[in-house]
Write a structure and sequence with these properties.
The chain is built from eight helices and seven strands, in the order βαβαβαβαβαβααβα. With about 260 residues, the chain is an alpha/beta fold. It has a seven-stranded parallel beta sheet, sandwiched between helices. Strand 2, helix 2 and strand 3 form a beta-alpha-beta unit. The radius of gyration is 18 Å and the shape is globular.
Length: about 260
């Protein structure tokens, strides 16, 4: 893969959480920044970092086109980090169709669209790097998170496909996928955790697990290291590797999925 130093980092979902931490980390490492988020708070975040910003709904192609055009107007090599994401929980068959589509649109379809729009521009300029933020949930499956898990499996498969296509075509584009474990952000804070239902019990446990996870700053440092090393797989937690290995071993042994906890 190509060896170059991108100088403009474009980060979606950058107003808070992991996106904000990535912006802070990359700023300290000398990257120029273009921060995007659907929340207008992204402008305050960018101002604090001396960065450029764009209020951008990643589910709207027109917004992504505006983001691409702003990014390449500077004439600098571009690092695109597709970080925007959302989460919900519940039984797969009870989650309303609109909620399924919202999660898939934000987590997966927007990543597809950003790649569609940015790859040709990177090819034309002769350099680029794309980093798609998936999840440990893109490597292993648990119950009551079907929309999120489906979307993150899709991001992993998309990124693998993109990597192979850039490799086969000799494109000057580095490609990576990030599969973090729990990072202490607010992604699950709004979920209903009703202890009377199994899904609610899982949600409560998930919220506690996330709260006790790596700080966004710690995760961002590990991700930035992976980006600069041009690693395809970027892990922040060894448990993601263990979960992927356990799933593969079960698949090879022709075993059905197992619950991640013992049933009473």
């Amino acid at each position: 893969m190509p060896h170059f130093q991108p100088t403009l980092a474009v980060i979606t979902g950058a107003a808070r959480g992991l996106g904000l931490a990535l912006a802070e980390t990359l700023s300290r490492r000398g990257y120029r920044l273009l921060l995007a988020d659907r929340d207008a708070a992204v402008h305050e975040t960018a101002a604090a970092l001396g960065a450029d910003s764009l209020q951008c709904d990643v589910t709207r192609e027109a917004d992504l086109i505006a983001l691409r055009d702003r990014a390449f107007a500077a004439g600098l090599p571009v690092l695109l980090i597709n970080n925007a994401g959302t989460l919900l929980s519940g039984n797969a068959w009870e989650i309303p169709a609109a909620d399924w589509r919202r999660v898939l649109d934000i987590n997966l379809v927007a990543t597809v669209d950003a790649c569609r729009l940015f790859v040709p521009a990177m090819q034309a300029t002769g350099s680029g790097q794309i980093v798609n933020v998936a999840s440990m949930a893109g490597l292993a499956v648990g119950p009551w998170l079907a929309p999120y898990t489906v979307s993150k499996f899709g991001v992993v498969a998309l990124t693998e496909s993109l990597y192979l296509e850039c490799l086969a075509g000799g494109l000057p584009i580095a490609v990576s996928v990030v599969c973090p474990g729990p990072v202490s952000t607010e992604i699950a804070s709004a979920l209903s955790a009703n202890p009377a239902s199994p899904a609610g019990q899982m949600t409560l446990g998930l919220q506690q697990h996330i709260a006790a996870g790596l700080s966004p700053s710690e995760a961002a440092q590990l991700i930035a290291d992976g980006i600069e090393a041009r690693r395809f797989w970027i892990f922040t937690h060894e448990e993601a590797r263990h979960a992927a290995r356990a799933r593969l071993e079960g698949l090879l042994a022709d075993q059905p999925p197992a619950l991640p906890f013992a049933q009473e």
